[in-house]
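Posted in: Protein Modeling Q&A

I'm a second-year student putting together a small comparison for a lab meeting, and my supervisor asked me to include a predicted structure for DNA-binding response regulator. I've never done this before, so apologies if this is the wrong subforum. The sequence is pasted below exactly as I got it from our records. If anyone can share the structure token output, I'd also love a short note on what stands out.
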Amino acid sequence: MKCMIIEDELPAQGVLRNYLARLPEMELLGCYQSALDAHSQLKTGQTDLLFLDIELPNISGMDYLKTLNNPPKVIMTTAYPQYAVASYDMDMIIDYLVKPFSFERFLKAINRAEGTSKKTVEPKVNSEETPESIFINVDKQLHKIRFKDLLVVSSERNYVSMQTTSKKYAFLGNLKDWKEKLPIESFLQIHRSFMINYKQIDGVKNNHVLLGNYKIPIGRKYKEQLLKTLGVFDNE
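Accepted answer (user: helix_wrangler)
Welcome! Here is the predicted structure, written out as tokens:
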């Protein structure tokens, strides 16, 4: 299935790119930050599925859809649940995703797109919210870690370290297990020993990610995916 993304927020674009990359049957034709930028590609008629943000510069996603004579199937994305419900008045929209959304919720939308030509199910606002925190056991005490406050997860030998905005925790474990537990819409592995909260990145310099006072090395095989997630190109 050939698809396009129209999303003005680069981190949100990166989440969709990452999710689509997991599905070999999905072909991404392009990513755009406004509907006007994407218009020429859409007019070719090659797009089967469009991921469309509601809040866009110049013209909103819903207003833009009204201008199309033969639109593709559409999955709306929005940070505002009330907009998602309103968007269901338009027949070409088969599903919506309220940010932040999990891969499982994304996959349900894809399955619906592959199995229907128009919406058949009423929306359930926030039916599957992404968890906002997790508990870790350190020194026989449970500590609540909010994902938005977690900056870096690293591993060395048999230990995992978590650096939050205020404190560092260390405990037995491995990075592979924690990669499965952390939400993909916020965390990305950039080195064999490091995962970062890419929404907290301040910059990238000399093959290091800058997060506040921390400089995290970027592994060679992880750099391309990091740049794609951030919506930039390596021009070195």
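A couple of things worth pointing out for your meeting: The radius of gyration is 19 Å. The longest strand covers residues 150-156.
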